[in-house]
Amino acid sequence: RRIRNIARYELKRFRQEQLTKQLADRHKSGKESNLFWSRTKRHFRKASASLRGLISPDGESSKDPQRMANLTADYYEQLFKEPTVMRPHP
After folding, report:
1. Cβ partners under 8 Å of residue 22, min gap 6
2. Which of 45, 60, 63, 67 could join 53 in a cystine, given CB atoms 3.0 to 4.6 angstroms apart?
3. Are 80 and 72 in contact, with CB atoms under 8 Å apart?
């Protein structure tokens, strides 16, 4: 049992040292940083999706960026506002 605990401790310490080393080497130029960036490259895209227009609650289509931002902000403010709870009296 004692040997198992020692092995667990050593494994945990080894993993922590490896993580610390990888984090330190991430931004250095060289082989280690190339490994990191080659694995993360697939998560980055050169272009992002864009919105071409929104439909307001009254059914009107809008392509104006400022109006689209306002419509989106209003939608999410309404969506995440604190709910009103009606509790009947006992």
Report:
1. 32, 36
2. 63
3. no
Q: If we measure between CA atoms, which residue out of 64, 45, 40 comes closest to residue 53? A: 64
Helix spans in 2-90 (H): 2-25, 31-40, 65-79
Structure tokens at 48: 């992002």
How far is it, in rounded angstroms, from Cα 43 to Cα 37? 10
Give the C-alpha separation, 53 to 65, whole Å: 8
Containing 54, the helix (H) or strand (E) segment is strand 54-55
Sign of CA dihedral 69, 71, 75, 77: positive
Rounded to whole angstroms, how far apart are CA atoms 71 and 21? 47
Average the pLDDT over 60-83 and give the result: 87
Q: How far apart are the first and last CA of the chain?
A: 60
